[in-house]
Amino acid sequence: MATHFETTETPLLDRDALLAEARDRAGLSDFGGLWFLEPMDQFLAASNAEGHLTPAGHAAQTEVIVKGLVSRLRMVDDIRRHPEILDEKVEVAGIILGLPRTGSTIFQRLLASAPGMTGLRWFEAQNFAPFPGEERGKPVERRAYAQQMIDGWLQLAPELASIHPLDPDAPDEEILVLGQMFVSTMIEGMNHVPSFTRWLNGYDQSKGHEDLKTILKYLQWQDPARRGKKWILKSPSNLPYAETAAKAFPDALLIMTHRDPVQTVPSYVSMQAALYKLSATLTDKQVGDFWFPRLVEWMRMFEAARGRIGEDRFIDIDYREVGKEPMAQAERVLSRFGIPIDAEVEAVLNEFLAGNKREQRPMHDYSLERFGLEEEAIKREFADYRARYLS
User: Fold this and answer.
1) CA-based R_g, the chain, Å
2) pTM of the model
3) Using the 8-state DSSP alphabet, how is residue 8 labeled?
4) How many Å from the N-terminal Cα to the C-terminal Cα in the chain?
5) Of 221, 211, 156, which is closest to residue 179 (Cα–Cα)?
């Protein structure tokens, strides 16, 4: 199968070549269920047609896809050799969602720091399977891989340091794993693929979440110290597909973080511009033209789903209150998880807050004008949201 257009310097992403490269790297051939090939094909077609990938971006995207497929191959092989992995009991106590840039990252990390809690670490999200020869519980090479990724990102887009705190060992978003199965909004967050996002809106993503549950068992098996702890998941990008996450983890509390879209929309569009810069050629106006209506769509899809899910599943957290009283907001949620609030919990949370102040990172500079956004348009499109959650 051809892998290049004669008229472009950037090669095409080719499914058969990617699968073959993953098999060669892993020395394995069994991917388990092949349901992911359908969304993979949809994504590759959109990325080739719309992604504006640079040659370096093509290489980076190839690595992202291949390492995800390699993790899948290694996990399937580990489960074959260690079927007890599937016996792990994983309790997902909460899932944080909400519009991006609402303080969800720091809130997840605060909750995950409490005794009795755990979260999916960034280095695990990049490679959820151990590397060959890795000593169980000592993922040294995977941490180094993740740090090298972060260093490369910051070299190409230094502004990311002010936008999102990147730390190999810190809890981060499970959509980084779901994206390796081509069923999450992580894909549109790293690639300009409008036709894929339209397709994803109508696709049943439940198989991705079933595999995610297996991956959480796999991670807990790798680190037995997690047994008995409660998991806190998080991704603002769960917002449009909240119903899928809620059904996958029916006992999880859904924690919705809130902040005024007048701040969050330009902040997030700025983040997307920095991420796209890593691999593609897009103007700021193109980024704004895609992401403003997409965020509006996310919220409308969520609002329709919230009523079906049921208000008893939700707890709402105001960004302003987290800024003023982070301990009180964390304790509101932990108490719902059944985590007793005692002197040890308060000491750990206070220690985390002391080492993770916003002023310890560079300020994030962004503007509406840079991306062709208008404050009145944001207020108009999010009028119902602002009235319900922020008044």
Assistant:
1) 20
2) 0.91
3) -
4) 57
5) 211
Give just the sign of the alpha carbon dihedral 22, 24, 25, 29: positive
Cα distances (angstroms) measured from residue 121 to each of 126, 154, 232: 9, 19, 11
Q: Which residues pair with 318 in a beta bridge?
A: 258
Handedness of CA 335, 254, 245, 250 (dihedral sign): positive
Count of beta carbons in the 10 Å neighbourhood of residue 178: 28
Structure tokens at 103: 């303080």
Nearest-angstrom CA–CA distance, 250 and 252: 6
CATH code for the domain defined by 15-131+138-359+366-389: 3.40.50.300
Contact assessment for residue 105 and residue 48, using Cβ atoms and an 8 Å cutoff: no
- The whole-number pLDDT of residue 2 equals 38
HSE-up of residue 161 (Cα within 13 Å, Cβ side): 11
d(Cα 49, Cα 12) in Å, to the nearest integer? 9
Structure tokens, 259: 């902040």
Which residue is associated with the tokens 């000592």?
Answer: 138
**DSSP codes joined into one string, 275-314:** HHTTTB---HHHHHHHHHHHHHHHHHHHHHHHHHH-GGGE
Q: So what's the pLDDT on residue 163?
A: 67
Please state, in angstroms and rounded to a whole number, the distance separating the CA atoms of residues 91 and 85: 15
Run means of pLDDT, 10 residues per run, the chain, 391 residues: 46 96 98 97 95 91 95 98 98 93 87 94 96 92 94 81 80 92 86 93 94 98 96 88 94 95 91 86 92 95 94 93 86 91 86 67 68 95 95 81
Identify the H or E element spanning 255.
Answer: strand 253-258
Rounded to whole angstroms, how far apart are CA atoms 139 and 287?
Answer: 36
- Least Cα distance to 373 among 294, 278, 305, 303 occurs for 294
Buried b (16+ CB within 10 A) or exposed e, 273-298: bbbbbbbbebebebbbbbbbebbbbb
Residue 120 CA to residue 219 CA, distance in Å, equals: 8
Q: Which helix (H) or strand (E) holds 97?
A: strand 91-98
